[in-house]
Specification:
The protein is of the alpha/beta class. The protein is built from 8 helices and 12 strands. Helix 6 links the parallel strand 9 (about 185) and strand 10 (about 210-215). The protein is elongated and about 65 Å long. It starts with a strand and ends in a 14-residue tail after the last helix. It binds NADPH dihydro-nicotinamide-adenine-dinucleotide phosphate (NDP). NADPH dihydro-nicotinamide-adenine-dinucleotide phosphate binds near residues 87, 91, 172, 216 and 217.
Length: about 300
């Protein structure tokens, strides 16, 4: 079995000795591949143009937690997303930072600071804010638990409505009830045909007036024009966005410089090189031993 590594030279410099120590074969870059039939695994963020060049490919591994950038794969090729504690904890941290910044009026204070304006606004404890976490997967659960530990009133929404201890949970059909009790919405959903464009004008209108949004899912889940209207109408009071549509957000986009919006350039997490390599090794070993592939993506669900 051999891995074709399609990522940065910095990452390759960390992966190469780890693969060598594990006795696994790794080719760096498509140009280095002399025998495409030897390639059984590919690690990439953007997939190679012609996957059919690798007739014995078994698993395509996304170097990140998302797989929405991946094509439909040929029969017999499985898709794995990188599962790493570091990714999950970093996104959790971004969500906690965003929730606290929004809850404590930081968009207003940052705008005031820029013009030297010393004015206080009403502040209440976390227990007064109802947070709603959309997506209760590996990251959503972790974020929801941490926000609950901070004292926020936390509820979660997921396709299956799976239970999470200490948190009120809603299923896909109960979206209206979930949104109606959510002052601060956190999006941690994967991008699929069902979640694409989910946060549109009608969706935002279901939140209580003045609600806040922390978005770390995928840009295409949020209609940015609808967000702007909702901000102008006071339906949404502030938003913090780590993901946007498009990415990168053009320099002249309205969201840059809008005092009600804080944009971070998709930096909630980054895969640690060594953790990524450990995941890929686990995938290769599972393939060899006929076990379930770690981070296996269900092609029908899309996550
Ligand atoms: P998981 O696959 O573990 O969890 C996905 C969750 O979303 C599940 O709870 C699932 O429900 C729920 N879900 C999926 N589709 C729907 C739907 N149509 N309606 C309601 N709920 C739905 O993913 P992770 O927690 O690991 O990651 C979530 C996402 O976070 C990633 O896909 C990516 O988009 C984003 N992310 C962003 C990063 C950043 O840097 N900004 C970094 C890493 C991830 P159920 O439990 O019922 O299956």
């Amino acid at each position: 079995m051999a891995l074709l590594f399609l990522s940065s030279p910095e990452r390759a410099a960390v992966w190469a000795p780890i693969f060598e120590a594990a006795g696994e074969e790794m080719e760096i870059g498509e140009a280095a591949v002399s025998d495409p039939s030897a390639i059984t695994h590919i690690l990439c963020w953007q997939p190679p143009k012609d996957i059919s060049r690798y007739p014995n490919l078994r698993v395509l591994i996304s170097s990140g937690a998302g797989v929405d950038q991946m094509p439909t794969l040929p029969e017999g090729v499985q898709l794995s997303r990188t599962v790493a504690k570091g990714i999950e904890e970093m996104v959790r941290d971004w969500v906690v930072m965003a929730a606290l910044m929004l809850h404590r009026n930081m968009p207003i204070y940052l705008a005031q600071a820029a013009r030297g304006d010393w004015r206080a606004h009403m502040t209440r404890g976390t227990g007064f804010t109802r947070v709603g976490v959309m997506g209760l997967g590996r990251i959503g659960k972790l974020a929801a638990r941490t926000l609950a530990d901070l004292g926020f009133q936390v509820a979660g929404w997921s396709r299956s409505g799976a239970r999470v201890e200490g948190i009120e949970t809603f299923g896909e059909a109960d979206l209206e009830a979930f949104l109606g009790r959510t002052d601060l919405l956190v999006c941690l959903l994967p991008l699929t045909p069902r979640t694409q464009g989910l946060m549109d004008a009608a969706f935002l209108a279901r939140l209580p007036r003045g609600a806040m949004l922390a978005h770390a899912g995928r840009g295409a889940q949020l209609d940015m024009t609808a967000l702007r209207h909702a901000l102008d109408e006071g339906q949404i009071s502030a938003a913090m966005l780590d993901v946007t549509d498009p990415e990168p957000l053009p320099q002249d986009h309205w969201a840059w410089g809008d005092p009600r919006v804080i944009v971070t350039p998709h930096i909630a997490s980054e895969t640690d090189h060594a953790e990524g390599a450990a995941h890929a090794l686990n995938v290769i070993r599972a393939t060899r031993e006929g076990r379930e592939i770690p981070g296996l993506v269900d092609p029908l669900r899309g996550y």
